[in-house]
Amino acid sequence: MRRVYGLGVYELRPLETADLAANLPAGSLVWQELDIPAAWSVDQYLLALQIDQMNMWMWGNADPKKRGPKPRPLPRPGQGAPSTRDDGKPADGHERHVRRIEVQPMTIAEFQRWRAQRFSDERVEKSRPLAGT
């Protein structure tokens, strides 16, 4: 919110925050984290397309006996898991965890019970030092 709108999340009412979050521009960090097509802006898609076309042009103009397999296009956001190696790990060596958010209709009472829960981030819990040490 601060990067795009110059506003802090806690400076707004919840519905205002939700409205602004839903309308973040393409290329925002939220869309990148969710790995959806809006993770890239138009210029990033055009650059990837240009790279793909250049790779195809170079492959097409190479000697057919020496050129190897047809080049694959660059992976785009929202296409799912990247290509893997023979050992099942991603080709670039980085593990990717994709979280999909789905609509879950609920009543106001169900929503209030859900909001009353205590949430914690297991990544934060692991990094906290033990008390008394």
TrEMBL record:
Residues 84-95 have a biased composition (Basic and acidic residues). It comes from the Bacteria. Residues 59-104 are annotated as: Disordered. This is Tail assembly chaperone. The lineage of its organism: Bacteria, Bacillati, Actinomycetota, Actinomycetes, Bifidobacteriales.
